[in-house]
């Protein structure tokens, strides 16, 4: 008897461990029970998925049965989607319709989210709002100390994102004030900057693409957003293939899988072939071993290794600029990109080779010396970026010890930089082998 109980205990332990590996079922939590009930009232039934907490991706959806290629993962009826149509049919509609100049579809959705969140218990969308994150990790929400640790091109884009959201807020203040008759409280306190930032992040990170016909009450920006409750719990994985679109026949937004998924495993979709910098900028996360990831080389780094006395230096820079060879220069998992090597080959041209610059841009071999010098400088740039990345990782580990409140945000930048380091080390290895071969 004892022996048997031991085997049962082992089996139970194994089962518990397996459930932890797969993810912890969260469908019993009150907010998910309320969300499923609310969706059911709008015609959504689902037997394939359940909310779960996964140790590596956080909150997501787990398969309740094995999914095969071409299986329908989820079909969300139109009634469940939050679009500009939803906004116009609410009490905000008449204020949007008479406001001039017209607001953008994006501001309409942000205004609706802020107003509904403020309504609390009275909001018809409360079950959905209750499962939305309270905070986001897009660069617009990161502290200045954290943003300064991002790689240079991403740091620039993060600052642009922050400026854009701030300008959006400033240009919408008058419209927000026009909504005062709807609220007992002052609209200035309801529609403040942090409320808009939260709503903007919600729309930016969670909407699905759904084209709507142009309405006169909106500005000319494309109206392509729809918030999809429950469906937006699906996490991204770069190597997963799905087919997603609004089905005009069933009037539902559908996702079909092109990959298999085992029972109790997390179900993933792909947000697009984005590198980690784009994922962090748009969605606030990074993907490990992302095949689309690359490390960007800024033009400042590029020029660090060229003699300032090169008489053709300015002419070379001008050619690179005119032919768009100073942007998107990268190292990837397969080494330096063709664009990076081409830019460097042109910069390495000797005075007597300079007339061949057109052939360089076409990828022709100019001389053995040019090839060798290009490889040497590419390797130097790669090693410089490795050292810079290691230095930033050291700064991050020190900050993590001193700044408890920034730990989550710092971990995100650390994940990005560690991925960069792996790519650069792989590139250094490839360059070393190429050097030995030549």
From TrEMBL:
Catalytic activity reads: N(6),N(6)-dimethyl-L-lysyl(20)-[histone H4] + S-adenosyl-L-methionine = N(6),N(6),N(6)-trimethyl-L-lysyl(20)-[histone H4] + S-adenosyl-L-homocysteine + H(+); L-lysyl(4)-[histone H3] + S-adenosyl-L-methionine = N(6)-methyl-L-lysyl(4)-[histone H3] + S-adenosyl-L-homocysteine + H(+); N(6)-methyl-L-lysyl(4)-[histone H3] + S-adenosyl-L-methionine = N(6),N(6)-dimethyl-L-lysyl(4)-[histone H3] + S-adenosyl-L-homocysteine + H(+); L-lysyl(20)-[histone H4] + S-adenosyl-L-methionine = N(6)-methyl-L-lysyl(20)-[histone H4] + S-adenosyl-L-homocysteine + H(+)
Q: Which Pfam family name is an example for this entry?
A: SET
> What subcellular compartments does it reside in?
Cytoplasm, Cytosol; Nucleus
Lineage top rank: taxon:
Eukaryota
The catalytic activity of this protein is classed by the Enzyme Commission as: 2.1.1.364
UniProt key word Lyase: no
Domain (SET) spans 47-272
Protein name per its UniProtKB record: SET domain-containing protein 4
Q: Which organism is it from?
A: Balearica regulorum gibbericeps (East African grey crowned-crane)
